[in-house]
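Key result, reporting period 2: structure in, sequence out.
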């Protein structure tokens, strides 16, 4: 299955999953919580008789659930009765309903009043009074039509709740705290409505339900959009990788064709060209030095760039081979070449001149600079161990300061090297070309 078909198949699956996620979002995101009167919550009767000195008569009924029977009398100006569920009798830690949209009250009601009041009491240190915690909890309330509970269940939308004005005035609550809050509901009250008529009332509270969302709808849709955005970016990334792979393969094919053409074109020339690098030391061999010197001479003639040559000869190298063997001698040569390369400038090029002799081409260097480089290398070699062996080296330095043949420059460097060895080795001798 090609990339295109795989992508289209994945796209179809994602479309179906997205449609299902949107269509069944309520079922996927919500779970139902049920509150029933009794344990673990404290359920009690509230009335003007118990709280305000009225003479309303209240009593529990025998029905299933929590049944309240009451008779409103006129002693108190605003007689009332109802049922209170206290989620926290201490009024400190209640139930968080801030993400709940609506409550479902399974309630039977009989009475002359046309409305029923539902109150959600929210506790907060911002307006709570320690000596009067019961009354200082915020009164979020709504009144519903009594006819709406005839079916035995009524839905109450929390967005319709308001804060009681009398509560704000009594407790001198700042205006910015006058909005409904549901993050710490310590009590739920179902009572007779405002200015309820006198007479007999009956409440039976069976249960309360509300839906809790694991994730808010906004975050759910944002998550779906994020997944689509991620898939789009992934597709673009994979597409880019695929295009890069195609381009790379095409480039490789083109390079292979070029290499084949170059091999075929250079086949006849390979037999006459020598490698430019010495296999043992990694330095230039004579062929490589030839190319380097030709370029250096061209720079001298064209730009008058100075050129210094340093001939290096390992002292008593034959005795090293005779005493420790050729492998030890090879390690000395390879180590010496590496030591030199690590301690010269980028424009200084080292070549193996033959046997234990090396040639260092110091471009852009007159005699003083080349001499200083040689002296530095001499000290480094004398203080270094090559596979447990110590050796010294002699140096002959010459510099090109006039338009002279290259062989004269080499002769001057060779003569300087001869003098260094004759004067006791492990030293640098310079001889200039006039």
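The corresponding designed sequence is given below.
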């Amino acid at each position: 299955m090609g990339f295109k078909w795989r992508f289209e198949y994945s796209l179809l699956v994602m479309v179906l999953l997205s449609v299902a996620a949107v269509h069944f979002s309520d079922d996927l995101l919500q779970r139902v919580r049920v509150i029933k009167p009794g344990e673990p919550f404290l359920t009690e009767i509230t009335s003007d008789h118990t709280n305000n000195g009225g003479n309303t008569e209240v009593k529990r009924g025998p029905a299933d659930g929590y049944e309240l029977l009451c008779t409103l009398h006129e002693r108190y100006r605003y007689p009332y009765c109802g049922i209170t569920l206290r989620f926290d009798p201490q009024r400190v830690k209640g139930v968080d309903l801030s993400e709940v949209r609506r409550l479902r009250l399974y309630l039977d009601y009989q009475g002359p009043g046309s409305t029923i009041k539902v109150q959600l009491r929210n506790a907060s240190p911002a307006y709570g009074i320690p000596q009067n915690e019961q009354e200082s909890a915020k009164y979020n309330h709504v009144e519903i039509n009594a006819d709406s509970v005839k079916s035995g269940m009524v839905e109450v939308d929390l967005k319709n709740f308001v804060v009681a004005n009398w509560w704000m005035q009594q407790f001198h609550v700042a205006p910015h705290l006058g909005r409904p809050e549901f993050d710490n509901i310590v009590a739920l009250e179902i009572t007779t409505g405002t200015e309820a008529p006198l007479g007999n009332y009956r409440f039976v509270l069976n249960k309360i339900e509300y839906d809790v969302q694991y994730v808010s709808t906004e975050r759910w849709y944002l998550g779906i959009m994020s997944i689509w955005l991620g898939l789009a970016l992934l597709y673009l990334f994979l597409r880019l990788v695929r295009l890069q792979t195609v381009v790379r393969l095409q480039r490789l094919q083109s390079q292979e064709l070029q290499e084949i053409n170059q091999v075929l074109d250079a086949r006849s020339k390979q037999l006459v060209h020598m490698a430019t690098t010495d296999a043992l030391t990694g330095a230039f061999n004579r062929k490589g030095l030839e190319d380097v010197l030709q370029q250096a001479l061209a720079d001298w003639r064209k730009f008058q760039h100075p050129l210094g040559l340093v001939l290096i000869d390992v002292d008593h190298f034959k005795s090293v081979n005779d005493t420790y063997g050729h492998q030890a001698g090879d390690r000395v040569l390879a180590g010496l070449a590496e030591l030199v390369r690590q301690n010269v400038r980028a424009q200084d090029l080292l070549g193996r001149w033959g046997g234990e002799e090396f040639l260092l081409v110091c471009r852009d260097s007159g005699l003083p600079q080349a001499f200083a480089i040689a002296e530095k290398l001499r000290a480094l070699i004398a203080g270094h161990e090559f596979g447990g062996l110590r050796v010294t080296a002699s140096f002959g330095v010459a510099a090109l300061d006039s338009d002279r043949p290259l062989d004269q420059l080499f002769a001057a460097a060779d003569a300087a090297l001869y003098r260094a060895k004759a004067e006791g080795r492990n030293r640098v001798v310079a001889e200039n070309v006039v």
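The radius of gyration is 50 Å. The first helix runs from residue 3 to 23. This case is discussed further under Risks and Mitigation.
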